[in-house]
Known about the structure:
binds glutathione; alpha+beta; 4 strands; 9 helices; Glutaredoxin; GST_C; 2 domains; transferase
Amino acid sequence: MPAFTLYGSRGSTNTDRVRLTLAEGGFTDYELVLLNLQKGEQKSKEHQKRHPWGKIPVITSAEGFTLYESRAICKYLATKYSFPLLPRDSDVEAAALFDQAQCVETLYFAEPAGRIAFEKFAKRFMGLPPDDAVVSDALRSVEMFFDVAERLLQHKSYMAGNDFTLVDIYYIPLIQRLFACGYGDAITSRAAVSAWWDRCVNRPAIERMLAADKEAAAAAGR
Length: 222
Ligand SMILES: N[C@@H](CCC(=O)N[C@@H](CS)C(=O)NCC(=O)O)C(=O)O
């Protein structure tokens, strides 16, 4: 019996955040159940017992433990299975800097990048046109975010310090979405950000997972 079930969806950035964490931790003892968001399967009564807001990802264990919110899931899995992706508990300052980097990612980056992904990617599947005003406003915020990141990454290798952590993983799915939507320049035009991005996606486990997903998407015509 697998250690837990991950409920997610193909092409979901929030699900991919969890899958990347598991890949980086080398953990394969789990079952992935894919819900069809276009059919609204995430809003079923059964799924709302797992996630009261009817969203993915969620993990459930055979012992009855359920957890939603991708970053909380990643942190829980990294702690439970000792993936070397978190600062040591005893290093209080490193733990605080990790929390700071996590808040920065969620509030200053993922918020505007998520708006772009919704307008330019998700809306395509809903048959709706993007709202260009929302996209340009969000793009301005993303550019401003990376201007600051560019300065910070001159003095450290990763977002929370000199070690690769979960926070770096948190960025990957939405940055990939920016590339897919034609906004990869926000990364490649900034030397330090671009070098950081290369360090992240050239990690063997991450590179393997991204390549396999790309191949699967091409085969499925997505
Ligand atoms: N903050 C949540 C976001 C979850 C979320 O919005 N998931 C999307 C898929 S990427 C979803 O379930 N969308 C369908 C819906 O809202 O009905 C997390 O990090 O897990």
